[in-house]
Amino acid sequence: MRTVFTTQGLLFFLLLVGMAACSSSDQQTSDPAQAADPTYTRQRIVVSDSLHRGRILDRHDSVLVDTRPQYLLKLPRRLLDTLALGQLLGWDSTTVRQRLADALPYGRASAGYPIQLRLTAREAERVRRDSSATALQKLVLTQQRQRVYTTNAGAPVLGYLGAEAQSFYRQARRTQRGRFYRLRNGGVETYYNGLLTGHHGYLHPLVDAQGNQHGTWAQDTIFQQGQDIHLTIDAKLQAYAEKLLGGRKGYLVALDPSTGEILAYVSAPVYPASTITAPDQAGVRTQLLQDADMPLLNRPAMLANPPGSVFKLVNAAAALQLGAISPTTGFRCDQSLVRCVHHHPQANSLTAGLQYSCNPYFYQVMQQLINRVPDSLAQDSAAARHANLALWRRYVRSFGLDSVLGTDVAREAPGFLPTPAYYDKTRGTKQWTYRSIYSLSIGQGEINLTGLQMANMAAIVANRGWYYLPHLVRSVGNNGPLPRFREKHHTLIDSANFAALLPGMVAVMQRGGTAEASSLSDVGITVAGKTGTVQNDEGDDHAAFVGFAPADNPKIAVAVYLENAGFGATAAAPCAVLVMEKYLRGSIAPKRKRWERRIQSRAERAPLIKAPPKKPVVADSVSH
Fold first, then answer.
1. For the packed helices 235-245 and 573-585, what is the interaxial angle rounded to 10 degrees?
2. Where are the alpha helices (DSSP H) in 133-279?
3. What is the DSSP letter of 430?
4. Of 113, 115, 111, which Cα lies nearest the Cα of 102?
5. Whole-number Cα distances in Å, 202 to 54, 88, 223
């Protein structure tokens, strides 16, 4: 018994010694030279090269964000002579009042609240030259290197550097939505922060008392300068698209379907890109945080809504693939099934159904699909409906729906497609019928898509069934985009079934179609599109549109969603085709100049802060 105790004690003692050796950082080494001679000293040497944060450029190499000197004028509020300040800087009285108001987080900020104003180099020189001769004796002019935005456009794309957004974070913590905004709006500045910043190089030598090196105690790291980020965004197209949406609520996403490169990415209401980090924009940030329209919400990535009639394209493709219909299938416009808000000829084919966006037509398309009874389930219609809905969902999910696409934005919503189990739970029975889920046929009800998903859906149809993930960065330094953006994805639907959609989408933009007024045929561009009007129980209907051009060789696909804007044909489609024309031709034809001015004027008139809309009486489902 004594022998056993001694052996166990010895083992326990050795275990403690081993653990102590492992936990001691001074003794731990992978280098035999250090183990042989404890007199060696571990050193960590920083490679002397200084780090410079990379620039952000658009697809044509125009610099959008760079680190440059910025002049800041600090001034006291007590006894501030605004007239003398205006004379010093060359500002009129209105500009002085507005700049001071923008710099204060709230109107009744204490007199001791510090004010900083950004100045141009010329204004800074005037301060240096003239301030001593004025009544403004306590001005402090400083110069520091900060991220400078050369454009006002693209705020949700460009984002902000977290280290320069601390004032915004402090303001955001005082609002209910502050944490939501902080986590989701970093843009490419946040997403590609490590590549933009670069990293220092470190050497890890082991040296003796005489300074001689004897190997290394850790792996050396290579110095990497901050790399430039080249966006897929066309800066001029981005600025133009933002003028079309302005202060309205909604989004516009335009991309190149052949590459997945995002050409324009608008989340509206829009605001200047520098607002979040600018030291003299605290008042504007307060407005943005408190605005009921949530302009800081990254709508194309985070807002998932019912898509309306634009989803008829997906349902038609799935029905064709599963044999529920053929391109020549016709259905009667039966108003007893679902309301159709405008009169049109009989939809005797899929092309006509798309051209007129006939709700009863697509009600029956989906009915054919869901109520099919396979031979194996001939005695159980409920089980057949479950199986058919699950099969429909499988094909629809191959469009990248009901999941995060994986694009290069900080946060992205997955959207939603209902499952049979979902309806079992919400209906309280497994015996639900098609009549209780028919809203899926017109893109309403439980279906939710984001703007990125809708634009990608248009690209899939343009490509006849495949896509690259939408992305905002074209290259990092001299390399291309991230590897996952070079991988081609395929849907489960044959290209022939996508080709069957094209005549109907072209007919939408021609005489008799729902968007005939938005045709670009006068400039030789054939547009393929689909309109949507989405019922909204909390206000006016939302307007939607997806399309691409030229129809036979697509170079741009566009998705537009305008909240509370009414019909997709009259509100969303015009914005989309103007962006298409601007991108493909570089200018807008005189025929549409008046149209363009009217849309831009309406976008400018939209107020920044509005009261929440009153809840109206709910109408019947409408989707066109």
1. 160
2. 155-158, 166-172, 178-184, 187-191, 193-197, 235-245
3. S
4. 115
5. 20, 49, 7
Question: pTM for this structure?
Answer: 0.86
Taking the CB of residue 449, how many other CB atoms lie within 10 A of it?
32
Provide the token pair at 453. 């998903």
Query: What length is written for the chain?
Result: 624
Contacts of 356 by beta carbon, 8 Å cutoff, 6+ apart: 342, 344, 345, 347, 512, 513, 514
Nearest to 399 by CA among 576, 535, 559: 559
Integer Cα distance of 258 and 557 in angstroms = 10
Encoded tokens for 566: 């009414």
| Residues 71-95: tens digit of each pLDDT | 999 887 665 778 888 888 999 999 9
Whether residue 465 contacts residue 425, with contact meaning beta carbons closer than 8 Å, is answered with no
- DSSP E strands, 168-291: 198-199, 202-203, 205-207, 213-216, 224-225, 229-231, 250-256, 261-268
CA dist 42 and 35 (Å) reads: 12
Phi, psi angles (nearest 5°) of residue 66: -150, 160
Q: Is the pLDDT of residue 31 over 60?
A: no
Using alpha carbons, select from 250, 238, 182 the residue that is nearest to residue 56. 238
Q: Which amino acid is at 441?
A: S
CA 411 centroid distance within chain:
8
Spatial separation of the C-alpha atoms in residues 84 and 80, rounded to whole Å: 9
In this structure, the strands spanning 56-57 and 229-231 are parallel
HEC secondary structure over 500-560: CCHHHHHHHCCCCCCCHHHCCHHHCCCCEEEEEEECCCCCCCEEEEEEEECCCCCCEEEEE
Is the pLDDT confidence value at 21 over 60?
Answer: no
Distance of CA 100 to the CA centre of its chain: 32
Least confident of 18-22, 267-271, 493-497: 18-22
Enumerate residues 6+ apart whose C-beta is below 8 A from 527: 506, 509, 518, 519, 520, 547, 548, 549, 550, 551, 577, 580
Residue 201 CA: distances (Å) to CA of 220, 228, 427, 436, 476 = 7, 19, 61, 63, 20
Among candidate residues 321, 332, 327, 328, the one with its CA nearest the CA of residue 369 = 321
Expressed in angstroms, the distance from the first to the final Cα of the chain is: 90
Tell the residue number behind the tokens 């992305």, with chain if given.
471
> Distances from the Cα of 519 to the Cαs of 132, 221, 468, 598, in angstroms?
63, 58, 28, 17
Bridge partners for 115 per DSSP: 75
Q: Is 312 helix (H, G, I), strand (E, B) or coil?
A: helix
Burial class (CB in 10 A: 0-12, 13-18, 19+), 7: exposed
Residue pair 325/348 in contact (Cβ under 8 Å)? The answer is no
What value does the mean pLDDT take over residues 274-282? 93
DSSP 119-152: E-HHHHHHHHHHGGGSS-TT-EEEEEEEEEES-S
Which phi-psi region, left, alpha or beta, contains residue 498 (left: φ > 0; alpha: ψ -120 to 50)? alpha
User: One-letter amino acid identity for 20?
Assistant: A
Average of per-residue pLDDT values in the chain: 87
Q: Using CA atoms, how far apart are residues 453 and 310, in angstroms rounded to an integer?
A: 12
- Do 47 and 221 touch, CB atoms closer than 8 A? no
